[in-house]
Here is the input.
Amino acid sequence: MRLQTPVDGIDTASCEVRLSSGERLSYDNLVVATGARANGLDVPGTDREGVFVLRNLEDAIAVKSYLAATPCRKAVILGAGFIAMEMAENFSARGMETIIVHRGELPVARWDPEFSKIIRDEVTARGVTFVTGAVTAAIEGAAASRLALVTDRGTFDADIILMALGIRPDATLAGEAGIELGKTGAIRVDYAQRTSLENVYAAGDCCEVYHRVAHEWVSMPLGDIANKQGRVAGSTIGGKPLTFPGIVGAQSFRVFGLEAAATGIDEEGAAGSGYDPGSTIVWGSPVARVMNPESRRLGLKLVADRKTGKLLGAQAVGSEGAVSRINTLSACLWSGLDIDDVGYLDLAYAPPFSGAWDLIHMAAQQLRRTL
Amino acid sequence: MRLQTPVDGIDTASCEVRLSSGERLSYDNLVVATGARANGLDVPGTDREGVFVLRNLEDAIAVKSYLAATPCRKAVILGAGFIAMEMAENFSARGMETIIVHRGELPVARWDPEFSKIIRDEVTARGVTFVTGAVTAAIEGAAASRLALVTDRGTFDADIILMALGIRPDATLAGEAGIELGKTGAIRVDYAQRTSLENVYAAGDCCEVYHRVAHEWVSMPLGDIANKQGRVAGSTIGGKPLTFPGIVGAQSFRVFGLEAAATGIDEEGAAGSGYDPGSTIVWGSPVARVMNPESRRLGLKLVADRKTGKLLGAQAVGSEGAVSRINTLSACLWSGLDIDDVGYLDLAYAPPFSGAWDLIHMAAQQLRRTL
Here is the structure.
């Protein structure tokens, strides 16, 4: 049953939900699945018509309805994460002049500069303007377009402004109900998605998840993780207990002609988790050269621990084959393989799909030599 | 140094190579890399002009030279393994009428009937004739074309006939030199590619390789395995000992619009290795439906052990995404993961690349329910 009435609070001792209508509903178990909230910006004008965030289905419908009802020629995107990249492509595909306004220098912080530069170049090569080092002061009305984004790097007219500034777990309801939160600000759960309170579970972006490589509970609000957590909570409540075995941090997106994917942890995260990381990047063809001498290059970065040789993370960017490699390496991370194993992993070689030595092998062997 | 003179034999006691010229060359170490031989057919006429095997680069050059010099309209391929499939596509791409003549009913025995039927249908949909249950009696000369393949299912005219009947390890030289062979007929080696004789190594299709899932030494003549073995032998001889950690049986090919890939062992192999196998097949989209509702279906079969839940093997066939899944599952097999882990594996989800639940997850969970 989906409640259309806003929930005012939950009484965890009695497993009751208090609706804003005053009604109280009693259950045997509760699952808190309050998701995440889009980060806003503390400047004047973010409440103007034509200014959107894109967090949930309702947001997406609102954006599409606005575009359908309003002739829009110019879009400004605030922020440069993967949602910003995807939306830049989609605004461009509608024929709109699209400007990304970013506080930093490079997009998609998850990826290292060698790769985020390639993503930036792809986006600008497709006609998107990428403004860097810009601090927003206000969103104002404008003459030519409907809106103007005022920054210290200039003022940008826009018919629509999308604030793609990331999200944070929405644990307000849980916090007010006395459910314990983790240091990430998301709800603390165990491997069966139980919270600190009996018969109260949590699943999705509002709660933490165990990272098998970092060896700590993290907030990683991604849809596939939320799906898995929901299944574990539901099955456990339903009498078939499941254990959520955690994540390795696999993630991907596509923007224009590029695949970008990453898994595990980067060097900074590795150092923070007590590892002594080393890394290498290799560039090559995602398929055997004989199949397609013109195929664009795929870049693959591996991070491993100097002391044990254990694989810690990977990033890949290219026109094809990035996600495939990262998924294979995610399975390696899952089992804690070291790079000696990764360098000799048995992969399904055929020239349309890789060289006899795949980039995965080359990267692992090159990294081994430098550790 | 590559010897152009035929090798007559090797004296392993003295590490000497005897050339057919009578010369003897002495080395500190020898690596036997005699490869494999194409299987022939014991019928009259296989030595006629226009009849080829395709085992090595020289064979490929001979086929291409013949096609360049001779107007060819009809090609007959004997056999229906993956080389036969690849060559059917290539003959067709040259505009030749192409007929596959197969002793059995379905192509590519490595794949189960659910998948090999799809491969057969793809090949015939592209205009290739697929003749089954045919026993070849002879290759004769013919009036219209140059050759005629005479079988109990009819006579087939051809300008070129390719015998694609599989290969067997070429361990003749090693056997004559007293090097121990395995029960597969290939050279027995250890994890550093050493043979039974001191200072004599072997690498490639002529020797066995350890199968990590079957837990036995097998003959699996594939190019990527040969490359790895060569590197292990060379590095070990050069003073940097390496260990070849074995294979899980990953393999793939492309034919027309299909990817076919497999890894691990099938149910018959599993039963032979002492497992109690169960299996399931799922069909779905390789990408999120919202991205491409028309995308052709990908089939994925998983085999696992009923007693332990351990993943034992996988097969996949589809227009895209088959190799990617099989590589990920190969990494799972490498580490001996069970299907509970596979069902919750952390993969790099984004709609252009998979659903939030990938086919891998769905197959593993479905298999778990049936074990």
Residues 7-32+174-237 of chain A form a domain with the FAD/NAD(P)-binding domain fold (CATH 3.50.50.60). The mean pLDDT of chain A is 94.
